[in-house]
Design a protein that fits this description.
Elements (H helix, E strand, L loop, with lengths): L1 H4 L1 H14 L4 H5 L12 H35 L3 H7 L1 H36 L13 H5 L5 H19 L17 H10 L14 H10 L7 E2 L2 E2 L11 H11 L4 H35 L23 H6 L16 H9 L2 H5 L18 H13 L8 H11 L7 H11 L7 H14 L3 E6 L2 E6 L1 H6 L9 H27 L7 H4 L1 H25 L9 H5 L16 H7 L19 H4 L1
Antiparallel strand pairs: 1-2, 3-4
Helix pairs in contact: 2-4, 4-8, 4-12, 6-12, 8-12, 14-16, 16-21, 16-25, 17-18, 17-25, 21-23, 23-25
The protein binds a DNA duplex through α19.
Length: about 600
Amino acid sequence: MMQESGTETKSNGSAIQNGSSGGNHLLECGGLREGRPNGETPAVDVGAADLAHVQQQQALQVARQLLLQQQQQQVSGLKSPKRNDKQPALQQQQVATQQLAFQQQLLQMQQLQQQHLLSLQRQGLLTIQPGQPALPLQPLAQGMIPTELQQLWKEVTSAHTTEETTGNNHSSLDLTTTCVSSSAPSKTSLIMNPHASTNGQLSVHTPKRESLSHEEHPHSHPLYGHGVCKWPGCEAVCEDFQSFLKHLNSEHALDDRSTAQCRVQMQVVQQLELQLAKDKERLQAMMTHLHVKSTEPKTAPQPLNLVSSVTLSKSASEASPQSLPHTPTTPTAPITPVTQGPSVITTTSMHTVGPIRRRYSDKYNVPISSADIAQNQEFYKNAEVRPPFTYASLIRQAILESPEKQLTLNEIYNWFTRMFAYFRRNAATWKNAVRHNLSLHKCFVRVENVKGAVWTVDEVEFQKRRPQKISGNPSLIKNMQTSHAYCTPLNAALQASMAENSIPLYTTASMGNPTLGNLASAIREELNGAMEHTNSNESDSSPGRSPMQAVHPVHVKEEPLDPEEAEGPLSLVTTANHSPDFDHDRDYEDEPVHEDVE
DNA sequence: GCGAGGGTAAACAGAG
DNA sequence: ACTCTGTTTACCCTCG
């Protein structure tokens, strides 16, 4: 139908979407709360205005539809007069029944409107002023009716008028058939049903409701404003409120016309609610895509752009291998950890994984960006997911994070368990691995200390272990640069998503400021390695280099960075947090990372 | 197929 | 005797 052609889609974009996306929709969606102060932002007003526009558009289509229905029934419905003539008593009986049905319709409409209002308020699309009655029709009525709609309303009205004058008491609308066309029965019905409505439309017919409305908001009526009747399509000038009330009772009494208009408005509301539901669904899908997939049991338990998480587990890597290769190079890569992590990975899913024999695939051997790290630290703290880092790298980080760059074995253990939920289980296995690595790798030097033996890191030896293989991937470098910019907003998004999934939420401070300084160092470190390889592979490297490098002129390592070098920043970032469970261990201060590099 | 790097398991020894 | 720490060996896996 024609009403579907332009109005709906158009209104979709103009009103709801604009309203919801009015300001930082993605990042704010988690922050939208019912308790939002009224009129806090102009965007709210815009959303209400747009909403009214939607109503106009939808009212137009509904009105057109009503007109069509009327015309059709006027042509075909010639039997009812016969019936009325034969049984006037039955007609009276029908009147009562019809009134009941009508009031039910009105109640339904009222409920819909109220729900709609609540929804809008929740979404922050609409602000109800404290003193303003919660009447959803007001925004529509206040100067929002375009000429075309008014004309349609008048057409609806005139159609009914014609109907009445012809003596056809039957109604052309399914709703209006439940009503009477004469004024007398309508008044009766009002008396019989004083609680017929509270939405302001029908209240005008109810003396009791009227008086209540006056008491609460003297001279305030959703259908009256600026000396004009705001009944859709009316705009009759009323000098004062009393005359407005008279006008309401006389011109907008309970009759076919009024009920038809009510029905139109009801459908408008319904359309809006449908649209709102759609947009809610869309929003949810967006959030799900960007943050956390709420329920995806079959999703591969891959946290981060653990691209490198190929090393994580067989099941994980096999589950979604196709997503791995391109992930590291996409600017959105830092987001991925958040999306799949907390909700997807469960204890059972991770512990059903057998012995973990895997390592970094050089194919996907890309340093995890700093933004990943900043987010992943929270992820790994709460999700029992094996970090995609080698034991050696983790040990190194643990040691480098320490104030004195040395740790006892037990302190290394504690660091593991504190930073990674994964290492809170199967202690015998991984502890053995830690010891094994400490002894095996030359880079770990055991030093006799006053309090016993401590372990330190020989950076030179560590970096000798294996050359980095991320060479020739300029997009990676770009990604690392952009990832820094992503970090802060994504942290907020992460927290929102974590809150949504009932995951322990850490303060922004824990992930934010202390992290950033380390992130800078981390990025420098990553860039050092990456740039070196880029330089080695690409002869031309001088002017087009990474801006990061220009900003942070740090030394480029002699040795190519190990891919796991990327985790280096991890530890630096993670130091910002203190898990209450393991705080007894030691106080990890976030500190410059450069020492380990230098 | 080979070597490198990594993970896991286990045996062993020394110290507390 | 037990636990912790540290070393070493063996085996397996993945990847280039």
